[in-house]
Amino acid sequence: MSACDVVVIGGGLSGLVAAAAAAERDKKVVLIAKGVGAIAVGSGSIDVLGYEAGGKPVARPLAEMGKLPSNHPYARAGKQATAKAFEFFLDLCEKGGFPYSGSADVARWVPTAIGTLKPTCFLPRSMDPAPLEAAKAAVVVGFRGLKDYYPELIIRGLMQVPAYPKRFRTVIVDPEMAGRDVNALDIARWLDTESGRHACIEQMLTGIAPGNVVLVPPVLGTVPNYGVLEEFEKATTCKFIEITGMPPAITGLRLYDLLVSEIKKRGVRIVEHATVTRAVVDNGRCTAVVTHGVDRERTHPARSFILATGGFYSGGLEAGFGSAREPVFGLPVKVPESQSDWSNAFLLSGGAQPFARFGLDVDARLRPTDGSGKAVFENVYAVGRTLSGFDDAFEKSGNGVAVVTGYRAGTLVA
Amino acid sequence: MKGYLYDSDRCMACTSCTVVCPVAAATREFLGPKMVGPALSRFRRPALAPDLAADLCSNCKNCDISCPSGVPISTLNMLSKAEYYRHHRHRLRDWVLSHGQLMGNLATPFVPLSNLAIANPISRTMLGAFGFAGRMPLPAYVRKTFRKQFRALRQQSFPQKVVFFPGCYIDFYDPGVGLDFVAVMQANEYEVVVPRGLGCCGTPMVANGFPGAAERAVRRNVRALQEWTDAGVPVVACCTSCSLTLKQEQQELFDVPGAAELAARVYDATEFLLELRDRGKLKTDLKQLSGRYLYHAPCHLRDQGIGRPGFEMLGSLPGLEISDADAGCCGLSGSYGFKGDRYEVAQAVGDALFKKVRASGADAVISECGTCRHQITVATGAKTLHPISVMRRAFE
Amino acid sequence: MDSVTVVVIGGGATGTGILRDLSMRGVKTLLIERGDLASDASGRFHGLLHSGARYAVTDPRSAKECIEENAILRRIGKHCVEKTEGFFVRLEGDGEDYEGQWVAGCAAARIHAKRVDLKEARRLEPHLSRRAVSVFRVPDSAIDGFRLCWQNVASARRYGGEVRTYTEATGIERAGDRVVGVTVCDTLTGAVDSIGCDHVVNAAGSWVGRVASWAGIEVDVKPDRGVLIAFNHRFTNRVINRLRPPANGDIFVPHGPITVLGTTSSPVASADDNVPHVEEVLELLHNGTELFEDLPKYRILRAYAGARPLYSPGEGRAASRDFTILDHSTDGLRGLTSAAGGKLTSYRLMAEKTADVVCRELGVKAACRTAAEPMVEDPPRRLVTRARPFFPPYGLDLAASRLGAAFGPVVQGLQMHPEERRLICECEMVTLAEVESAAREPTTFNLGDIRRRTRMGMGTCQGAFCSLRAVGALVSHDLVADKDGKALIRDFLETRWKGIRPVLWGDQIREAEFQREVYAATLNLDGTAQR
């Protein structure tokens, strides 16, 4: 494989942002992706910091970051890089024709498919919850057969939110879909079509009135733009809010498509369906990484490497009984001595899960360190969930850390 | 035990494969790769009757490309199809579509009569009755197969050799691509070898549920190539489904001695040339070209984990303007789109690509895969080329 | 205060078997269970319907009992039983002498044990260890303990039997030397009640001693803990036993798409703790790997633990798996019978013997008919054919066998409302109609209850997808009491977590991260609300 400046390993959010940031600085970038990454599992909103360690909600995420311990990825990336990273991200979305709004200064609470609210910061316009806070009543649209969204469940939860309306109505739209079970992607594809949009609008109009606030599953088209949203708003003069939910997460997919197309525009070469299994190292430097295929190995030389392989779910970390490892570079992953200390007695325990904080320790330049705090390789950077020191699910910080550390690494590479 | 038996354990049901599956997007009758592959495979282990849920799978392998857990979903699908057809009869149509080599050997001596026999309205109707798509013309056989033409070719001898694996499409329908490959290699001081005894790579048989025939094809090819693989000579294919099968599919599905050693030497033609270029082994005084082209990456190339070497090569040719269509699967998937009951699905899958092609105004569409090119031409009328044919113009 | 003739305490196989037996003899019987049916040992074992071969050397009486009951259960409980047959496999290094004794023991107990050619054995079970030196086939089978209990109840209900789950017995009421009732507590609401009766049957399994103590009687049942591992795939089509003196981790049982490996044996003071420990799991894996060399590569779904109620002077495996019926009139109290010890395979016989004692005391003459009549009828063939298009591949057969009498109405629902066909659980192929059917049962209070009836949530994703869907659908149909459903989702995920936590490595740490990504990161089920 031809030499380049930077190889990014991993095609999730942190890898895509890292590739974009490096390409922005005119680096020749190759991104190697095993699959599509966890980005499509999440909702596409950029959660920055929702809860402090004790479980108290964070009202001002950016300010709260100052209180984080020094091994937290935000602390490692630094305040300046954090602010710039979000600017960079917003700019990417703007250029991609799917602008996000929000700020890391204030938490915003978005409704979910189980009727809870989730703290986040940056959102596509279609997920902006502001109209709901101002409304006296709202409508929840359900789709007949759609198996991951239940208006009643959403309403029962939202009714308990003091600042929210107490009156909710339900409108059920029938997409008239035969065959296999219906998921949000099916509905979004239906709304990609003109006939689907017309049918949907027509059915919705039987239950909504001009000026209504309307909650919908994340189905307003598969493409990263606001075409469907705008058409709906225009045809109904209502405000629409997309709710976050289970995978397949259409809002996450839109962000994924947007970022992939933005990095391609910036000349990043993507190698799909390739798993990096090991690195070639020489005297404290990595000179190449090696992908493994059923046929043979292939070598990808570069000057710098960004490790964006994710956590256990994505395979960036692997656990056996009593031990964990980082499979590409064999970097150390610290775990408690006893396996019973890996986790809490409850899955959703109201605190950080020890195993969720397992990962790579890094220095101030995001380079993985050995036990003594010294960088193992001078040209290898780690980003996103691969890092240690934070439980993204508990804190609600996963996408925020991915954006910040991805951006930071992209600006550090030689 | 083959890896896939426990690799399906790695499925997290994350739905990534369902999201990218072009067939699931095109028809609600398909349950989607997650369900048909890893989910149902748990139930296929017990001695229950085999199911045909995978029949709509076109084996395009977008599921495998997207899977974050490394589950060989399409392989699970092909295995379940094979298991089904171990207990049920095939359709004649599927036999014909998956035995292209045999059909080609029968038809070629009678060209153009055999093409007329296939293409005239009466036989089209009859083919329709056998389950062929009436609106999807089969590609026309050539009078002189690639192999025949190659034997008549006078090559300059060079110490560096490369084995060319023609595959059915180039051999029977599109020999020009094979000749272009030979020309490019000759220009770069390689001698091309086409060993006797090579045949179909086996992928159409796999896709249509003929695992026995596919395995026999694999064995024959491995045997025919053995002396060259033993000598360390690279084996190159211009058809991405052939190269994918030689590299991967034959190893995942069968246990043929020598298959792994062969796989380690197999290259897609553009991959091979890009590697030579990066090692400084290609001619650098290239002819100035011109033209605006649209590039379509075949799914079976994307699955190989080598990026888009053809696109990259073309991008570095002087004077050429090329853009990546990036519009997903063409829908034909080898033999799939020729079937009457799959035609609509295949057209729906390719629709995004067809729109891109029509809107591009490009001089031609470039793609490595012969059936992708056929599908694009039939659907849009666009002229299509293999990258090697464009490269020939630069190198000669 | 309600009044019945007999109250059965304990909703395991024995208790539900006694309920069925007495009901069929025309005795008005109510069963009370502190949790859901089969929530302890009857649902927390390897699911093996013994042929008796395992006891052929150590416990010939049990062996004989097993083979007889095995034949009966295959007949009357065919929808709970998967007729897999079993292999006994001796590995290199396992004593040859034992094989000889075992063959003789099987012959004596009339268990048909036939030697299988090694090549044939490998063809049938390709993943079995290469170190196998002798293989015998025996009529072992797999049995679904949850379904067995529910189908016993379904049968009993047809004869007037009743069940109250989540109803804990708290005391035995007596008048002089006679039992006159039991006091009970609703474990969900805390409401206290008493039920009048002429007779109490103590079928509380490992808790038999506790129940007897309320009447001042000592019954020394010793709980013996066994840990099991469920794997994601069915890598064996037969029950596989190690042909050596019974030890830990030498039984594999296939159940539908999964395989269960068991078990350990350790005496415990209390049977209440059913959380497995990592060390126990490791021991099982270590031993199991001798029979299946690729075992460390297979994905574990979860580990679980149960307690065998042993009643005999010995301890652990040395103790008999036999049962004893204690008529407490010999202790000076009339109207109390305890069913102590036993094992699932012979539950019906144990129930019969218990019912015999009860009937003798009540003066009921009717004879036991439980061995003659199937627990549930086969669904009509035409109905099955009609239902086929409503299910995904394999879903129909699974549903037909687990639904029993509810199959007809469910099919009707599926036909009339196509959206009911959607799969709530895609790992175990459970449709919305089945989930709703289970939810409508008056004995259903949470997702765990639905799980035990339908297998929802027992597959690969361990509730990651189905918990939201099930609760969403049930809330929409007003089938749950919970005000917003969140607690139901949470409780379900947490009970699944109990089994994942002891195996938190490999693919299950990935699954745990995924579940938290969905339920914590995206849906914020764990975080406190704002404002």
Structural account:
The complex is a heterotrimer of chains A (414), B (396) and C (531). Chain A is of the alpha/beta class and 414 residues long. Chain A has helices spanning 13-24, 61-65, 73-77, 79-95, 130-134, 151-158, 184-192, 194-204, 227-236, 250-265, 392-395, 398-412, and strands at residues 4-9, 29-32, 100-101, 108-111, 117-120, 123-124, 137-143, 167-173, 213-216, 239-242, 269-271, 275-282, 285-292, 297-307, 318-320, 323-325, 380-382. Among the domains of chain B are: 8-84, no CATH class; 284-395, Rossmann fold, CATH 3.40.50. In chain B, helix 4 crosses helix 6 (73-87) and helix 20 runs parallel beside helix 23. The radius of gyration of chain B is 20 Å and the shape is globular. Chain C has 531 residues and is α+β, with helices and mostly antiparallel strands. In chain C, helix 1 packs parallel to helix 5 and helix 12 (432-440) packs across helix 13 (447-454). In chain C, the strands form five sheets. In chain C, strands 6, 7, 8, 15, 16, 17, 18, 19 and 20 form a nine-stranded mixed beta sheet that branches. Helices cover 35% and strands 22% of the residues of chain C. The longest helix of chain C has 17 residues, at 60-76. At the A-C interface, strand 5, helix 6 and helix 11 of A face helix 14, helix 15 and helix 16 of C.
How many domains, in number, for the residues of chain C?
Answer: 3
Helix-strand string of chain A = EHEHHHEEEEHEHEHHEHEHEEEEEEEHH
Outline of chain A: globular
Task: Find the count of extended strands of chain A (DSSP E, 2+ residues).
Answer: 17
What labels would you give this structure?
heterotrimer, A: 414 residues, alpha/beta, seven-stranded mixed sheet, four-stranded parallel sheet, 12 helices, C: 531 residues, alpha+beta, FAD/NAD(P)-binding domain, D-Amino Acid Oxidase, Chain A, domain 2, 3 domains, six-stranded mixed sheet
